Amino acid sequence: MTLLALHAVSKSYGALKVTDDITLSVTEGETLGILGPNGAGKTTLFNLISGDVRVDAGRVEYAGRDVTRLRPHQRCHAGIGRSYQVPQPFGNMSVFENLVTAACFGGQQTEREAWQTAHEVLEQTGLMPHANKPAGGLTLLDRKRLELARALATRPQLLLLDEIAGGLTEPEAAVLVGELKRIKARGVTMIWIEHVVHALLSLADRLFVINFGQRLAEGEPRAVMNDSEVRRVYMGMEA
Ligand SMILES: Nc1ncnc2c1ncn2[C@@H]1O[C@H](COP(=O)(O)OP(=O)(O)OP(=O)(O)O)[C@@H](O)[C@H]1O
Predict the structure, then answer these.
(1) Read out DSSP for 143-197?
(2) Ligand 1 atom closest to residue 36's alpha carbon, by position in its atom list
(3) Atom nearest to 47 CA in ligand 1
(4) What is the pLDDT along the chain (239 residues), one digit of tens a residue?
(5) What is the spatial distance between Cα 12 and Cα 19, in angstroms, rounded to a whole number?
(6) How far apart are the CA of 52 and the centre of ligand 1, in A?
(7) Rounded distance between C-alpha atoms, residue 25 and residue 5, angstroms
(8) Atom 30 of ligand 1: nearest residue by CA position
(9) Tell me: domain 1-79+189-239, CATH 1.10.1790.10, correct?
(10) What ranges do the domains of the chain cover?
(11) Do the interacting molecules here have an ipTM over 0.85?
(12) Shortest-distance Cα residue to atom 2 of ligand 1
């Protein structure tokens, strides 16, 4: 069943058309990878899905419902969770408090449920040893994990991951990919923007490539990576 559908979605900043007539859909349980050069409009696409930014034209449907006019917290309550490219924790709060806050306000859970969720998510993401540390003092890997954990604490049905592996060492990225595989195995639908292509390919069922706000290619990951236009535009290789 289709979980998310964008219908001819567009967004401009002044004269710059950052999202240009994008139509895409994601089915339940699927992992869709998003690729594209810097400035192609990938994060803007997430903003349009999460409601951080409103579309100029087009329609966003989630779980069979038109959410185009819903605000970000309403879309989060509906089951859309997201991580941000630059982690956004409450730095003075502990890791645990960050998760309880996400569960209460993003996931509409009671305090009791939120504590339970925070414990589960700490275990899932390997953050248990850091539960009582201030979020602001974490290493990059743990800040990325916390970003993922905060999104998970809202109990999303659709998880939007924005460059969650960016800046990590190879072994750290491998640990994160392992965590994402377990999340996928639980049936969570994911859309993942990532420049670390081998990490993305280890998880994605399908790829969607954006260039200048438009769809450049879409389909089975290996076929897309072998597409001559994708190689030229994204990887700077001649066909
Ligand atoms: N709020 C804004 N106001 C003006 N221009 C914006 C705004 N947000 C994004 N842009 C511009 O839109 C274009 C696409 O930005 P976006 O962040 O979506 O790209 P991206 O593909 O995620 O890039 P990257 O891979 O570097 O993260 C860029 O040229 C950016 O400068």
Answers:
(1) HHHHHHHHHHHT--SEEEEESTTTT--HHHHHHHHHHHHHHHHTT-EEEEE-S-H
(2) 21
(3) 18
(4) 999 999 999 999 999 999 999 999 999 999 999 999 999 999 999 999 999 999 999 999 999 999 999 999 999 999 999 988 777 788 889 999 999 999 998 889 999 999 999 999 999 999 999 999 999 999 988 999 999 999 999 999 999 999 999 888 999 899 989 999 999 999 999 999 999 999 999 999 999 999 999 999 999 999 999 999 999 887 766 54
(5) 7
(6) 13
(7) 4
(8) 39
(9) no
(10) 1-79+189-239
(11) yes
(12) 13
**CB 137: neighbour CB atoms within 10 A?**
11
Cα of 231 vs its chain's centroid, Å: 24
> Ligand 1 mean position to 39 CA, how many Å?
5
Backbone angles phi, psi at 138, to 5 degrees: -75, 155
Q: Which of 148, 190, 154, 166 is nearest to 72 (CA)?
A: 154
Helix (H/G/I), strand (E/B), else coil: 6: strand
User: For atom 4 of ligand 1, which residue has the closest CA?
Assistant: 13
Angle formed at CA 236 by CA 232 and CA 239, multiple of 5 degrees: 35
Mutation choice for ligand 1 from 12, 19, 42, 208, CB with most ligand atoms inside 8 A:
42
Closest to 158 (Cα-Cα) out of 12, 85, 51, 59: 51
DSSP string, 27-49: ETT-EEEEE--TTSSHHHHHHHH
Across the strands, what pairs with 214? 211
